[in-house]
Amino acid sequence: MTGFVTSKKACCGQGPYNGAGLCTTLSNLCPNRNIYVFWDAFHPTERANKIIVKTIFTGSHKYMNPMNLSTIMALDSMT
């Protein structure tokens, strides 16, 4: 669907699931960040962020109800 391999493990970090500590030079680093949802324990990867922003801006009513951001901006520009 989105091409991510896992959302249960971060790309950069320590401990179980790379979810402990910060991303430092001592961290485990994944070989391909584009297949991970999370960069570290707190932040989505760039690819995940692009999907989130696209959904907010142009997403269907299934995800953005009552309207997405592009519809709000279009309405706002009419005033």
Automatic annotation (TrEMBL):
It comes from the Eukaryota. InterPro entries: GDSL_Est/Lipase, SGNH_hydro_sf. Gene3D superfamilies: SGNH hydrolase. One of its GO terms (molecular function) is hydrolase activity. Keywords: Hydrolase. This is GDSL esterase/lipase. The lineage of its organism: Eukaryota, Viridiplantae, Streptophyta, Embryophyta, Tracheophyta.
